[in-house]
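User: Could you write out the 3D structure of this protein bound to magnesium ion? I've included everything you need below.
Assistant: Certainly. Input first, then the structure.
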Amino acid sequence: MTELARQIRGGDLRRLARAMTAVENRTEEGAAILAELGALAGQARVAGITGPPGAGKSTLIDALARHLRRQSKTVAILAIDPSSRITGGAILGDRIRMQRHSGDAGVFIRSVATRGNSGGVAGATAELVRLLDGAGRDAVLVETVGVGQDETEIAGLVPVTVVVLAPGMGDEVQTLKAGIMEIADVFAVNKSDLPGADRVAAEVRGMLDLGTGGDRAMRPAVVRTVASEDRGIGELWEAMEKAWAGGRRRPAPTGD
Ligand SMILES: Nc1nc2c(ncn2[C@@H]2O[C@H](COP(=O)(O)OP(=O)(O)O)[C@@H](O)[C@H]2O)c(=O)[nH]1
Ligand SMILES: [Mg+2]
């Protein structure tokens, strides 16, 4: 193993950040470190967290990170921002999040704005996830905004996808595209402290019954969370662990 790879696997976040930039920019060094660390990938728990803006994805990922840190697990958070440039609100949220975890080498946070990138969301994300996995992070959590095509794209890149919903955001369940049924391994009904969470959970379950013909083994878990108060986080992580372990079979693609 090269000295650089050893340092990164030893927890050197500065060098990891530089390697991420090199991979993003597709430099030769980037290709080299990706080849070396990528060969060691496959150990991390990798999940995509998607859902409409404001549902609480970032807050939920923060809470999951705290949960994992209590178990001395290392975490990488990759926030994919397909629509806005570095000045966008999502990045501001990430700054706040970075401050909260700063000084803890157990949490690595990175934002990527993918608009205009040659490989699009898929190209950049797949490689960065692989690098983070190979860097020895125990968990890699990828945040994507669930609008447009990106959430289906992310689901193709990660073994487990969590779809985050929340009450008070309009008819979110009604307007969910059919595709989301196929990509969700776990539904998090976040903001369960607010009125309407029962209705959202019931609607998701109703939709799942239709989609899976009532076959319970096929059904993704529906977990209620209050991310801002660290409630339901252990249950969410457990549901994710089950999904990684293959506890749920995705319905066969319908082909259309
Ligand atoms: N009441 C309530 N508010 C929450 C909860 N989780 C997140 N929020 C708030 O919802 C807003 C959007 O959260 P954020 O994590 O940025 O959503 P994202 O756009 O999906 O990443 C923020 O003001 C959060 O503080 C929750 O469980 N309950
Ligand atoms: Mg966010």
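Confidence is low (pLDDT under 50) at residues 252-256.
User: Perfect, thank you.
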